[in-house]
Amino acid sequence: MHEWLSLEELAQFLGRDRREIEKLVQRGRIPGRKTQGDWQFHPTEVTHWLEHEMREYSGDELHGLERAHQESEADIHCPVRSLLHPETVQVPLEARTKRSVLECLIEVAGRTWQIWSPADILQAVQQREEVMATGFESGVAIPHPRNPLPEAYGQSLIAFGRTLSGIPFGAPKRQMTDLFFLVLCRDSRTHLHVLSRLGRIIQLPGFVDELRSAEDSRRAYETICSADERLGVV
């Protein structure tokens, strides 16, 4: 990827129509700058902006974003299942505070032997939460580092945990959170591919309730994989 994106490249990066993106840029809705009459956008700035916007995205908007980033480390057909493993699912997750949730999820992810620097991951995820909490109104949170940390883990992966009761996690309207997906990706394209897919999965009718009622780790893993398979190839 180039260091800077043109307007056309930005539209492709976001999986949206160029004219629609140009209107948003003209209104100052997307971070960018004009150089010699042409708009330029930095991928990192756009990614940070996008993570904030994605909470309000419709299924179709998430679908477009997923298509734009499907050439990633994750499998095109089932990107979440390809990075989630039976051993990286923990139900129940024995945690009662935001910090302990993150510590436990990193420990669960470490069962793959792919976590090389848990302290650096914890610090990065906590810093991301300070910038903007990752909790959704549905009681789901998707904590992750603000930027990829390829030096801290060996492969991209997802860990999931459900706590026994809701925890304050910065969700809108102070809603409690009990379903947590830790997303650790080695590059931005895989990161956006997975986030957009998880966003679509969360929006599936009945999914959150079914996941919340999963009695153990195995059933939770099957529920997540089944939802991923239902969406199929993008």
Short characterization:
This protein is α/β, with parallel strands linked by helices and 234 residues long. It folds into two domains: 7-68, no CATH class; 79-231, Mannitol-specific EII, Chain A (3-Layer(aba) Sandwich). The protein has helices spanning 7-14, 18-26, 43-53, 59-68, 79-83, 98-109, 118-131, 188-203, 207-212, 217-231, and strands at 33-35, 38-40, 84-93, 140-141, 157-168, 176-184.
Task: Spell out the blueprint of helices and strands.
Blueprint: H1 7-14, H2 18-26, E1 33-35, E2 38-40, H3 43-53, H4 59-68, H5 79-83, E3 84-93, H6 98-109, H7 118-131, E4 140-141, E5 157-168, E6 176-184, H8 188-203, H9 207-212, H10 217-231
Parallel strand pairs: 3-5, 4-6
Antiparallel strand pairs: 1-2, 5-6
Helix pairs in contact: 1-2, 4-8, 6-7, 8-10
Walkthrough of the structure:
This protein folds into 2 domains: 62 residues, no CATH class; 153 residues, Mannitol-specific EII, Chain A, CATH 3.40.930.10. The two termini are 22 Å apart. The protein is built from 10 helices and 6 strands, in the order ααββαααβααβββααα. Strands 3-5-6-4 form a 4-stranded mixed β-sheet. The chain is globular and about 55 Å long. The protein has 234 residues and is an alpha/beta fold. The model has no long low-confidence stretch (mean pLDDT 92). It is 45% helix and 17% strand.
